[in-house]
């Protein structure tokens, strides 16, 4: 697991107390010369290579295809998802290190059926639905590669939805950060101005939507604005 | 292929969490108009007299400053559509037009035409772990540690002592930028 160790630079783990409201946002970083650059692929669409295993016992490819269609359907936005290729071997915690190439410009999607890979990242597979990591040139903000890990050990239910998680993690793969719109919602009764209905919580909100996590499958306007600002169709 | 440890490459992890237990905060109803204190001054003419356009998208641009007139970064701005409050968009101060960094400036693009209430919300306070994320590289390091109550934009009545719940509606026209949304925080 040497690769995992090298990848582990920065985590952000958030308490589930809906509150502070961020907005759609794009991942960014500070360069050595104190400028800031936003993350993004320089030349989409981007191809994906899929773990040939299952996701939650079902066809993981179909789940990824649906997520691609969601992001590729945003108006005034470039096509982001390219071709989907099947990998040659089921990726597990045992072969992860040798099976993944993190510098090839192709998004690697791993179906972690047991949650063991999530655990190797130091996260609890009982509460973490998925993660994405982005390799970026910090001088330019150009994304070099992305790794998505989807936790298949947490089967879809009303409280957590694998399809919704896939759409969310793919959003990170394009360079979107989390949005806070949703922290103040009509179901949570958190103190704050302008609560939003749970069905309208953006997909890039960082937590599941307990009343029905499948609400996250469709993008909301905050998601669409974020992606269209980063990848405007010329 | 061995992983490249070049210092000019940085990795970020985005973790989507599903926790089994929601921690609910007691109901506060911050937008309950019945709790709004009386406005000490008569309101100026509303800028919403013009019927809202229904077509196209526009932009909202403005700035957030402190009571000392210092531009503030890392303040979150939300636009809530008046006739459809589930349409909410946002940005945070410090990023201006074309994704350029400008102290205190915010801009929200691709805003569906219509009337909006605009509000600001502080970065700090309610969930510090959230704040520690990536913003620590940009926003936090460039922002003074201040606190202020969430508040609506209330046009000419904006001041460091205004009523946070007092608001006006602004109009976004298709293809145009609604500017001069200047928030003064009650810090």
Distance between the termini of chain B: 52 Å
What is the CATH topology descriptor of the domain at 2-8 and 29-177 in chain A?
Answer: Collagenase (Catalytic Domain)
What is the helix tally of chain A? 6
Terminal Cα separation of chain A, in Å? 42 Å
**How many β strands of chain B by DSSP?**
9
Could you name the ranges of chain B where pLDDT drops below 50 across 5 or more consecutive residues?
1-43, 124-143
Helix-residue proportion of chain A: 10-25%
DSSP E strands of chain A, number? 7
Instruction: Give the % helix of chain B.
Output: under 10%
CATH class categorisation of the domain at 2-8 and 29-177 in chain A: Alpha Beta
Features:
heterodimer; A: 234 residues; alpha/beta; Collagenase (Catalytic Domain); five-stranded mixed β-sheet; 6 helices; 7 strands; globular; disordered N terminus; B: 187 residues; mainly beta; Immunoglobulin-like; five-stranded antiparallel β-sheet; three-stranded mixed β-sheet; 1 helix; 3% helix; 31% strand
